[in-house]
Amino acid sequence: MNRICSAAAASLAFALLAGCSGGGDVIPTTPDAPAAEQGAPSAGAEVLDALRVRSANSAALLVLEADKVFVTLAAGSENLLVNGGAFQPTGEVGVDGAVFSRRDISFNGSGALTVDSPAGHGMVCNRDLVFCGGSYAVTAASHGLKARKSVRVGEGSELAVSAGKDGIHVKDDDDPTTGFAYISGGSLALTADDDGISTESNLLVTGGSVAVQATTDTLHTNASIAVTGGELELAAGGLAFHADVALLVAGGDIDTSACAGETDAPIVERS
Predict the structure, then answer these.
(1) How far apart are CA 233 and CA 219, in angstroms?
(2) Is residue 216 within 8 Å of 29, Cβ to Cβ?
(3) Which residue in 160, 169, 223 sits closest to 188, CA to CA?
(4) E strands, 102-186, where?
(5) Per-residue model confidence as pLDDT tens digits over 118-166
(6) Residues with Cβ < 8 Å from 221, sequence gap 6 or more?
(7) pTM here?
(8) Which band of pLDDT confidence, cut at 50, 70 and 90, is reported for residue 74?
(9) Average pLDDT for 207-224
C-alpha cells in the first residue's frame, strides 16, 4: 500500500500556495473558515423553509436569491429535492441544478438532505457554497456540487456525492484567480465519472475524511494542492493529484494505491 504520512506546520502549506498560485493566496487561513459563515440573517429566511418540507415532485427546483443564504436542517429531519429537469423558472438562464443560488449559501444543522438531479447538476452556487453541519446525499447526472468562487466543507458535515461529471467543480470563467476548494473537517465521499474535485485555483485539505473514486483524477487543479491533515482514500483511473503549479504534502494519512499514478505536479514537496 502506498501511503504518504507526514506531520508539519500548516503554515508551510499556505506559504507554498501563496507563492505559487500567481493570483495570491485565496485559501482561507483559518481552519474553521466554513463555520465562520454561520449566523443566519432574516433575509430570505421564509423561502428557506422549503428545504424543511419533504417533496416528491419530480420537477422540483429551489432557487435562492438573497445576498447571503443560510439553510439550517432541523435535528432529525429528512428533506428531499428532486429535479427532473422539466422545471425552468420564467426568464431564468442556466438554472440546471436541484438547488441554485445566485449568492453565497451555507448549509448547517443536524438533519439530512437528499438531492437527486437526474438531468443536471446537484447543487449550483454562483459564489461560495459552504457546508458546516448536516448530512447530504447528492446524485446528479452532471456535476454534483458546482460553484464559481469556492466550495468549503467543515466539521460536522457528511457529504456523499455521486456525479456523472465532477463530484465537486469550482470555476469562475470571469476570474481565474478564484474558484477554490477547502476541506477542513467532516466526511466527504465522492464517486465521479470525471474528476473527484476539480478547481480553477488552489485546493486545500487540512482535516476530515475524504474518500474519492474517480474515472479521471481524484484531486485536479489548475493551480496548487496542499494537504496538511485528514485521511484521504483515493482511487482513480488517472492521477491522485493533478496540479499545474505545485503539490505540498505536509500532513495527513493518504492512500493512493488504487490510482493509476500519483502526481504530475512540476513542484512536489513532502515534509
Answers:
(1) 11
(2) no
(3) 160
(4) 104-109, 112-117, 121-125, 128-131, 134-140, 145-147, 150-153, 157-163, 168-170, 180-183
(5) 888 999 999 999 999 999 999 999 999 999 999 999 999 999 999 999 9
(6) 198, 199, 200, 201, 202, 203, 242, 243, 244
(7) 0.80
(8) confident
(9) 97
DSSP-derived letter for residue 137 is E
Phi then psi for 195, rounded to 5 degrees? Answer: -90, 150
The three cell numbers of residue 31 are 481552519
Specify whether the CB–CB gap between 132 and 157 falls below 8 A.
yes
Do 225 and 197 contact (CB within 8 A), yes or no? no
- Looking up cell 485555483 gives 201
Backbone angles phi, psi at 49, to 5 degrees: -60, -20
Single-letter amino acid code for the residue at 159:
L
Q: Is the pLDDT of residue 24 over 50?
A: no
Report helix, strand or coil for 28: coil
- At 133, list the grid cell: 453541519
Cell numbers 446537484: residue? 122
Pairing relation of β-strands 224-227 and 209-214? unpaired
